[in-house]
Design a protein that fits this description.
heterodimer, A: 217 residues, globular, B: 806 residues, alpha/beta, Methyltransferase, Methionine Synthase (B12-binding Domains), Chain A, domain 1, 4 domains, eight-stranded parallel β-barrel, 14% strand
């Protein structure tokens, strides 16, 4: 089932920080969202691994070594991680490409709606991971993706290989280390005993250190 | 001496082997470790694996080379040679020298365009190297498997065919919705593989036999080739970070038995999670059943990456608009390399109801083969319709067919020996449904007997080249009735007789019938109905023409080819009698149009971005006597400026900015029609390009829309553009402003290189840069003249450059 696309997020990606969309824009967003929802094919996968050791910002899990102070901070006190990947499929990209030829305003709305949808798909999967962890008496850290802070995008190669995304999700890497289909996400979620403050869990922008991002909420 | 596999395939039961990765994992292969390395490091384990399957009864043993290619290994030769040696050794030890060594080829792990960035030719190269090494090591066949993109399978099949004469088998991995991750279905995958003349095709991996059953059923219904079924031991399930499969040997064999009793499948095996024990039970179960060979299905099918279109059931519409003949604007687009214009023609025709699009980009002064490849590839990146590659240039034909994702239509061959010799080998190699024109060295026969004689000769030629007769569509030729009174009657007789005597499919360029007459649409539309009534299978027409589509839809409804008249009703339910017929039922929609927009002034329509109303208001102003240039200067430009300023102040946002630009564009188009020769002078010419290595060009496209709106001519070089090309174009076109876009930190390097080369070559143009990761500091560091944060800033900068004198 394709989840509903949160309109608030669509408008945030479109740059409406607080501004009200006109009736024409709202109507167009509704039509584009409906179209996108029809062609999107959300798919996800995830796997758990022990977090083997962690010192001085060097992490070992799933047979890989990650040097990242930001990720180390995120995973502090964790003993296990869940690696996850999600996509909404290749047809969304075709829709965007076609709109780029036919009508650019639709293309930017599809872009925004696609970004909002894949995040929503991630949120749903993340919620499942959180409740599975709760059942085991564990709590989760906010998800963290390659490219956030000093967590190198190079590690996309590891996510793609370990989660076998080309086969399971149809998600591959481009030479630029971006994923295709473009509306795809990889992330890692840390599991630990104890409690995580609500603010860390809730705000997506809290996960990223980028200070001058135009989409920062 | 071993029997020729081709002689056994499809004539008796044959069995593949089962899972490799899952068994190696049990032997200690770590997650992330490449199984192919074991050919060298742990050959005994690999030999044991193969031996297990040989003893179990497998006839076709895959080498342990699934991921062996030069993207992952630099000792490819060693690995492949060892892998083949390991199978041979297992055959020797088990006394199964009757078995076949299959060079196993899996996906590269990279995606081909339009989804990914591995070029088709590069994929052919990568697979070609594997095939050459495998052949040198002595494999008996090539088995291409687990392909979830049939286009990548095509690259592998082409590579196999170009490097050996061994049998080629190909199996596709579907998901549970019977779809491919790239959007295709069973029919489109089968059409593509049949077109490539593989020796057998089928399905593997992804799921167990139970989930696979509907896919296999459909394959057996439509494929004329032997079918291979290699399922997993059920659906994969994750357990403590390991992938496990739940279907045991007994249950697996039961499911396979059920499938084999239901549909004719000729080759069975297994995939992930299956073991020699699964294969033992499977072989025993299947051998209880009588063998059923694949049967010829008389289906004429063309396909795109996403779906197949069958010819010969309901007549189909082939859109004719992608063709420069008699079209000034189209010729201009070809000369200016304006591929977007051509794509737009395709999108319009898809919206108007075409089933296939003819693609002709022939113009003497352009590089037709390169243009054909580019247009075919780019059309397939934005729309799903199958294409008809239309050219008399052999190289253009090959480039188009080779890069086509699917089984194309090919336009055309005729009775001339020279043309037969040029075209048939390409169809035999790449697959396609071939349009055959009823003319030869003596010209066009003026009677049906003469045309049928040519048709028969072409069918015979097809036999010689191994192209199935069903893949020929006879063009009975429509010649104008204005010069030859009986010409329509001859065409109609030919249509009937091809259908009744030759049992063939037919095609016509319908509108030729009225050449030289007034109100051609009347004759064309009626002739279309007559042709359809006489058996026409494919009508090449302009689907944007309402009268033609009305004839087509009415015919289909009347001939019981439109169940419940559904398509007819969908197209005309909202039409008003008495007015000219509406263009289409499912025309490209204009989103965001407001019903209450009909009273808006032009300025308001532009400000609010109501495209339809903006065009209408412009027409009203023109009718009231206003001059085009005045409307531009007094209405459009001020309205656009207000929106632009709003955007800069943060009260108007990107979608609205673009919608306004589009509404203004619609108004400009209306005015342009009235200006004729007195066209709005471009304020300046600007190059836009997304730099090398970067394939994300939405930002650049936004800037393009805005610049054009403000009266600039944009030379859009596209994405992934080399510094050399940008420099050369800037010199050739005497360009004063260049806009470069880059999305990623990694590609800002290419941006820097481009600027460096521009300066080195002394190009006097200013360079404005933009893109997600760019900042003022970055722009300064790489020597750009200006950093534009968004599209409006680029417009303002362009105004500064061009409105001040050089």
């Amino acid at each position: 089932m394709t989840p509903d696309i949160p309109r608030k997020e669509v408008f945030r990606y479109l740059g409406y920080c607080g501004g009200e969309p006109s009736a024409e824009v709202s109507m167009m967003v509704e039509e584009c969202v409906a179209q996108l929802q029809e062609v999107a094919e959300p798919r996800t996968t995830h796997q758990y691994f022990p977090l083997e050791c962690m010192d001085e910002g060097i992490l070992h899990f799933a047979g890989i070594v990650v040097k990242s102070r930001d990720l180390a901070k995120n995973l502090q006190n964790c003993h296990e991680v869940c690696m996850m990947a999600a996509t909404i499929g290749a047809e969304v990209d075709r829709l965007i490409r076609q709109a780029e030829v036919r009508r650019m305003s639709e293309a930017v709305i599809y872009q925004a709606a696609g970004a909002a949808l894949v995040e929503e798909v991630c949120d749903q999967l993340n919620a499942e991971i959180v409740s599975a962890a709760q059942a085991r008496g564990l709590v989760c850290r906010p998800r963290f993706s390659p490219g956030y802070g000093d967590f190198s995008l190079e590690h996309q190669r590891d996510f793609i290989r370990i989660l076998n995304t080309p086969k399971l999700l149809g998600v591959c890497l481009l030479d630029s280390l971006l994923m295709t289909p473009s509306k795809s996400v990889t992330a890692v979620v840390g599991l630990c005993h104890g409690e995580v403050s609500e603010s860390l869990v809730n705000h997506p922008c809290e996960r990223c250190g980028c200070p001058d991002c135009q989409f920062r909420a | 001496m071993k029997n020729d596999l081709r002689k056994r395939l499809g004539r008796e039961w044959l069995f593949c082997d089962g899972g490799t990765g899952t068994i190696l994992q049990a032997k200690g292969l770590k997650g992330g470790e490449l199984p192919e390395t074991w050919n060298l490091t742990r050959p005994e384990d690999i030999i044991e694996l193969h031996a297990g399957y040989l003893v179990a009864g497998s006839d076709i043993i895959n080498t342990n080379t699934f991921g062996a290619n030069s993207l992952k290994f630099n000792n490819l030769n060693e690995i492949i040679t060892a892998a083949v040696g390991n199978v041979r050794e297992a055959m020797r030890r088990t006394g199964r020298e009757d078995a076949y060594v299959a060079l196993d080829i899996g996906p590269t792990g990279k995606m081909l365009p339009p989804v990914g960035d591995l070029p088709f030719e590069r994929a052919v190269e990568i697979f070609g190297e594997v095939v050459r090494l495998g052949v040198a090591a002595g494999v008996d066949l090539v088995l291409i498997e687990t392909m979830n993109d049939p286009y990548e399978a095509k690259a592998a099949v082409v590579a196999a065919k170009e490097n050996c004469d061994l049998p080629v088998l190909a199996t596709i991995a579907f998901n549970q919705k019977e779809k491919l991750t790239t959007g295709g279905d069973v029919d489109s995958a089968v059409a593509l593989l049949e077109g490539l003349h593989v020796d057998a095709l089928g399905v593997n991996c992804g799921m167990g036999p139970r989930q696979m059953a509907p896919i296999v059923r459909r394959m057996a219904e439509i494929s004329s080739l032997p079918i291979i079924v290699n399922p997993n031991a059920g659906l994969p399930r994750s357990e403590n970070g390991r992938t496990v499969f739940d279907v045991g040997p007994e249950e697996f064999a039961e499911e396979i038995f059920k499938m084999a009793s239901e549909c004719p499948v000729q080759v069975f095996g297994g995939c992930c999670g299956t073991t020699p024990e699964h294969i033992v039970r499977e072989v025993a179960a299947v051998r209880k059943l009588p063998f059923r060979p694949a049967t010829e299905k008389a289906r004429t099918v063309v396909s795109s990456f996403s779906h197949a279109v069958e010819i010969g059931q309901k007549p189909i519409i082939i859109g004719e608009r992608i063709n420069p003949t008699g079209k000034k604007k189209f010729k201009e687009a070809l000369r200016k390399h304006d591929v977007e214009y051509i794509l737009q023609q395709g999108i319009d025709q898809e919206g108007a109801g075409a089933h296939v699009l003819d693609v002709n980009v022939g113009l003497p002064e352009i590089d037709e083969p390169a243009m054909m490849e580019e247009v075919v590839t780019r059309l397939q990146s934005v729309l799903t319709l199958p294409l008809q590659i239309d050219t008399s240039n052999r190289e253009a034909l090959e480039r188009g067919m080779r890069h086509y994702n699917g089984k194309p239509m090919v336009n055309s061959v005729n009775g001339k020996q020279e043309v037969i010799e040029q075209v048939f080998p390409l169809v035999a190699k790449y697959g396609g449904v071939l349009v055959a024109l009823m003319l030869d060295e003596q010209g066009i026969p003026d009677n049906a007997d003469g045309r049928l004689a040519i048709a028969k000769r072409i069918y015979e030629a097809a036999d010689r080249y191994g192209v199935p007769r069903k893949d020929i569509v006879i063009d009975c030729l429509a010649m104008t009735i204005s010069s030859e009174a009986r010409s329509a009657l001859v065409t109609l007789e030919t249509l009937r007789r091809v259908r009744d005597e030759l049992h063939g499919n037919t095609i016509l360029g319908v509108s030729n019938i009225s050449f030289g007459l007034p109100m051609r649409e009347i004759v064309n539309a009626h002739f279309l109905t007559m042709a359809l009534q006489n058996g026409l299978s494919c009508a090449i027409i302009n689907p944007n023409n309402a009268a033609m589509m009305a004839s087509y839809r009415a015919f289909c409804a009347l001939a019981a080819l439109d169940p419940n008249c559904a398509e007819y009703i969908e197209a005309y339910a909202n039409a008003t009698p008495g007015t000219s017929a509406p263009t289409v039922g499912n025309a490209p929609k204009t989103t965001g149009e407001n019903a209450s927009g009909s009273t808006l002034s032009l300025g308001e329509a532009v400000a609010r971005g109501v495209t339809g109303r903006a065009a209408e208001a412009t027409r009203e102003l023109l009718q009231s006597g206003r001059v085009g240039m005045d409307i531009i200067n007094e209405e459009l430009v001020p309205a656009l400026d207000r929106v632009g300023q709003g955007f800069e102040k943060g009260t108007v946002f990107l979608p609205q900015l673009l919608m306004s630009a589009e509404a203004a564009q619609a108004a400009f188009e209306v005015i342009k029609e009235t200006l004729q020769g007195n066209a709005r002078q471009a304020k300046g010419r600007i190059i836009l390009a997304t730099v090398k290595g970067d394939i994300h060009d939405i930002g650049k496209n936004i800037v393009k829309v805005m610049l054009e709106n403000y009266g600039y001519e944009v030379l859009d070089l596209g994405k992934d553009v080399s510094p050399e090309r940008i420099v050369q174009t800037a010199i050739d076109e005497k360009i004063r402003l260049i806009g470069l876009s880059a999305l990623m930190t990694t590609t800002v390097v290419s941006m820097a290189e481009t600027i460096k080369l521009l300066r080195e070559k002394g190009v006097p143009a200013k360079v404005v840069v933009g893109g997600a990761v760019l900042t003022q500091e970055y722009a300064d560091a790489i020597g750009a003249d200006y950093y534009a944060r968004d599209a409006m800033e680029t417009v303002r900068y362009a105004n500064r450059i061009f409105l001040s004198k050089p």
